[in-house]
Amino acid sequence: MKDIRLEIDKALSSLSSDAVSTLEPAVRRAQQTLADGTCEGNDFLGWLHLPSTISEELLTDIKTTAATLRQNCDTIVVAGIGGSYLGAKAIIEALSNSFEWLKAGGERPAVLFAGNNISEDYLAELSDLLRTRRFGIINISKSGTTTETALAFRLLRAQCVAQRGADEARKVIVAITDARKGAARTTADKEGYKSFVIPDNVGGRFSVLTPVGLLPIACAGFDIDALIEGARRMEQQADAPGGIIEQYAAVRNALYRSGKKIEILANYHPKLHYLGEWWKQLFGESEGKDGKGIFTAAVDLTTDLHSMGQWIQDAERTIFETVISVETPRYSLLVPHDDENLDGLNFLEGQHVDHVNKMAELGTQLAHADGGVPCLRLVLPCLDEYSLGQFIYFMERACGISGLVLGVNPFNQPGVEAYKKNMFALLGKPGYEAESAAIRQRLGE
Ligand code: PA5
After folding, report:
1. Which residue among 185, 358, 408, 430 is least crowded, i.e. fewest CB within 10 A of its CB?
2. Angle, alpha carbons 315-321-325 (nearest 5°)
3. Sign of the dihedral defined by the CA atoms of residues 44, 49, 51, 54, in that order
4. DSSP readout, 143-154?
5. What angle is formed at CA 30 by the lines to CA 9 and CA 279, rounded to 5 degrees?
6. Which of 50, 61, 93 is nearest to 176 (CA)?
7. Apex CA 254: angle with CA 250 and CA 256, to 5°?
8. Using alpha carbons only, how large is the chain's radius of gyration in Å?
9. What is the pLDDT, as a whole number, of residue 337?
10. CA 227 to chain CA centroid, nearest Å
11. Which of 146, 196, 207, 286 to mutate to test the pocket of ligand 1 (most atoms within 8 A of CB)?
């Protein structure tokens, strides 16, 4: 099996000759403190050796649970937000047929997502769709108290019980949450739902290789053993001094220090959109603190070249770009001949569509380099579970190192609480009386 690879030469040419090498001691130190568990945030390092330590027993339990859900449901709704849904959504989309959805009687159950917004319309439309579905629910929340997820689960559970009866519903509702605390745990234990534990020492955005990601991915019909195998391969290489993980962490820090404050993750396949969303959270939530951190953005190309292309090429020169390039597409499609040739495309006759895409990618990379946008390129041999497993661990490990080199705790997220406090005060949540009075006064009510 081929490994993913990183190309950094086009980014290095925009940096001074020692910009990366001066960071090498900090990168090594970060690796060392991750390995010996002495870094900041060391109570959240459970993800570090997940690929090599996940047990066969847990994997079997996940696969058996997925088989039960697949047998009893045509639709599975995953309730979760942030790290409790983005990884699964990203991998499922990357591996799925883009139009699986619209095929009547597809082989796989539809895996839908809820609990990641508070939109009344979204939830009402979902509820309407589910009225004719034999649906099950995977309720994912580490804290077990997240409002978006709890609200969706409350609605979904009531509907599932109403449609299937309490006993049937019990067979198709699964909780993935803390071992002891939180409403999701209490409900699961009280109702006798099948449940999985999110380890205390694994933060949400690092949890895709736990049941949080693995159960929905297995429900969608994908090979979680191969995903873990790919991640394990990357874990084995991760300590290599100067390896691709260290290179990525070092180069992005060097670029940041040189004034490149925004990193754009670009893909050339629409089904990779959510991989960008997962990556944005991983790095954004890990590094964006203490007044520091690269702003993470993502674009779907060539689509967004017709919207954001102008900005990337020509606006303030504070960005760099990391391209995810897929070497070999899954299918083969050639450009056909057209007698009239009104579009002038006959010169491409017989060429693979992917060849056109690759030339667009190369042309864009060169144009961006000419426009002062340093480019890195991460090449995935193909879009399969093994490559995606490598990608996941590559990014997680690089994120840990990169955050430590930046000088922040990459494993906490104190800033996420601010909106919650205000929302609870505005909603008049019991226990928030003082905050409620203060916020109403601030709003002049
Ligand atoms: O990475 C994180 O920690 C967050 O994105 C959480 O995953 C997210 O806020 C959801 O939290 P919970 O799983 O507790 O519902």
Report:
1. 430
2. 135
3. negative
4. SS--HHHHHHHH
5. 60
6. 61
7. 120
8. 23
9. 98
10. 14
11. 146
Phi, psi of 109 (to 5 degrees): -65, 150
pLDDT of residue 101: 72
In the structure, which protein residues have their CB atom closer than 6 angstroms to any atom of ligand 1? 81-84, 141-143, 146, 149, 203-205, 285, 413
> Ligand 1: distance of its center to the CA of 189 in Å?
21
**Local mean pLDDT, 10-residue blocks, the chain (445 residues):** 94 92 96 96 97 98 98 97 98 93 74 98 98 97 94 98 97 97 95 97 97 98 98 96 96 97 98 98 98 98 96 96 97 98 98 98 96 97 98 98 98 91 93 93 90
Tell the residue nearest (CA) to atom 9 of ligand 1. Answer: 82
| Ligand 1: residue whose CA is nearest its atom 2 | 204
Q: Are 291 and 51 in contact (CB under 8 A)?
A: no
Reported pTM: 0.97
Residue to mutate (ligand 1; options 116, 140, 143, 212; most atoms within 8 A of CB):
143
**What spacing in Å lies between the alpha carbon of 144 and ligand 1's midpoint?**
9
Strand order in the sheet with 75-79: 110-114, 75-79, 135-141, 173-177, 194-197
Pocket test for ligand 1, best of 44, 81, 180, 277 (most atoms within 8 A of CB): 81
pLDDT of amino acid 189: 96
Distance, in Å, from the CA atom of 386 to the CA atom of 223, rounded to the nearest integer, reads 9
The residues annotated as belonging to the active site are 285, 306, 420
C-alpha to C-alpha distance for 191 and 171, rounded to whole angstroms: 10
Nearest CA to 27 among 304, 387, 397?
397
User: Quick count: other Cβ atoms within 10 Å of Cβ 273?
Assistant: 17
